[in-house]
Design a protein that fits this description.
This protein is 77% helix and 3% strand. The protein has 9 helices and 2 strands. The longest helix has 29 residues.
Length: 258
């Protein structure tokens, strides 16, 4: 089977699975599935960053996601970061380990946890679900548009030191195609008025690009092509979540303030 065929089949499976989970899975299975995915993605991140004795960080992460399942709370994130740093210091007592790798791991994990919390916090509200769906659709649409526009007209590199394939033209194409998707969803479903929807859509798409660049930077640090092999043709869970993992929490925070 070709790589393209694998990507298409995996993408179709993910669409059906996520749709069924998000719209039809009752509590507490909804939170349980989200916590499980969060834990698996955390393990993938820890293995990717090659931290010393990653199993101890994974065990601490398991306790956090178990607590998240019973009572989602953003305060759990601060507790885990404290425990992880304590473990890092203990591991580094007699042998120096990379603080840069550890800090980068914490950075990406914070966005992962905020993403999971935003999903649970908005799930009981029709407006909240509309906000999340519109954000994800806009980020995915902009990503697809940026790819094709960048291939056709991309001349000026966006951030060649991190991701040589991204171009400024691709970013503009992504904004051009992604913003109408979010605006259509949010205004049709009554989530946001027109002007606010346009501004928030811009934030979502730019955050998606920054999330993608964040994960690319991590992979460059450790010389990896993909974050894992769990999804045939796509790499790992982190590879599929990187953009929406930063876009969703940002949109959720701004929407909550509004």
């Amino acid at each position: 089977m070709s790589e393209l065929s694998k990507r298409i089949l995996t993408a179709l499976f993910l669409v059906v699975a996520v749709w069924g989970w998000y719209f039809h899975m009752p509590r507490p299975w909804f939170e349980g599935t989200l916590a499980l995915l969060g834990f698996v993605t955390s393990c993938e991140l820890l293995k990717l960053m090659k931290l010393h004795r990653p199993i101890i960080y994974m065990l601490a992460s398991l306790l956090l996601w178990a607590a998240f399942f019973y009572q989602p709370h953003i305060g759990l994130l601060l507790l885990l970061v404290f425990v992880w740093f304590m473990l890092f210091v203990l591991n580094s007592r007699f042998k120096k380990h990379s603080l840069a790798n550890f800090t980068a791991t914490v950075w990406m994990f914070c966005w992962l946890f905020a993403f999971a919390y935003a999903i649970t916090d908005t799930h009981d509200s029709a407006f909240g679900r509309g906000l999340i769906i519109g954000t994800c659709l806009a980020v995915w649409a902009s990503d697809i548009a940026a790819y094709f526009v960048g291939r056709q007209w991309g001349q000026n590199k966006l951030c060649p030191a991190i991701s040589p394939g991204k171009s400024i033209e691709g970013l503009l194409g992504g904004l051009l195609f992604g913003i109408p998707v979010a605006v259509f969803c949010w205004t049709t479903w009554g989530v946001l008025p027109l002007l606010t929807a346009v501004l928030l859509a811009c934030c979502a798409i730019i955050a998606g690009v920054l999330g993608d660049l964040s994960e690319s930077s991590l992979k460059r640090m450790v010389g990896a092509k993909d974050s894992g092999r769990l999804l045939p043709g796509h790499g790992g869970l982190l590879d599929r979540l990187d953009a929406i993992m930063m876009a969703v929490p940002l949109v959720w925070v701004i929407w909550s303030m509004l």
